Amino acid sequence: MAEPRERKCPICGKPASDEFAPFCSKRCADVDLNRWLTGTYVIPARDDEPEADDEEA
Ligand SMILES: [Zn+2]
């Protein structure tokens, strides 16, 4: 049984609209974008990768 995918707006929890998926509205999309821009989302900082050390001695 394939259920239709229910997408909920991550901002307000309302059903997402196709147009603004995964958000329900432009407003919520803007809110999300703003969170990104203002750094509300925690993006794990990633140090420079150490030199690849694949080969085993
Ligand atoms: Zn929403």
UniProtKB/TrEMBL annotation:
Originating organism? Devosia honganensis
Q: How is the cofactor bound?
A: Binds 1 zinc ion.
Q: Name one Pfam family in it.
A: YacG
Instruction: Give the required cofactors.
Output: Zn(2+)
Q: Which UniProt keywords apply?
A: Metal-binding, Zinc
Q: Does the keyword Calcium apply?
A: no
Subunit (UniProt): Interacts with GyrB.
Q: Where does Zn(2+) bind?
A: C9, C12, C24, C28
Under which name does UniProt file this protein? DNA gyrase inhibitor YacG
Family matches, as InterPro entries: DNA_gyrase_inhibitor_YacG (IPR005584), Znf_NHR/GATA (IPR013088)
Family named by the database record:
Belongs to the DNA gyrase inhibitor YacG family.
Function, in words: Inhibits all the catalytic activities of DNA gyrase by preventing its interaction with DNA. Acts by binding directly to the C-terminal domain of GyrB, which probably disrupts DNA binding by the gyrase.
Q: Does the keyword Amino-acid biosynthesis apply?
A: no
